[in-house]
Amino acid sequence: MITAEQIRVLMRANPFKPFRICLSDGSGYDILNHDMAMVGRNTVEVGVNPDAQGFAAYFARCSILHITKLEDLQPA
To answer: Do 38 and 29 touch, CB atoms closer than 8 A?
Structure first.
């Protein structure tokens, strides 16, 4: 089971390593930098479709209970 603390550790890593949040419905969100997500006790708010300046078009709320795995991504 994935915990909020595990995600927070990944978000605070220095240097940051991109990762993907995989959900139980088969969808996923790529976290490319530490500004793309905010971790709460039960959810992760993920910025989606960032523009060239890094501003998200909208946010997706992911229940931590539905996160099945966290995958490392190759740095951009």
So the answer is: no
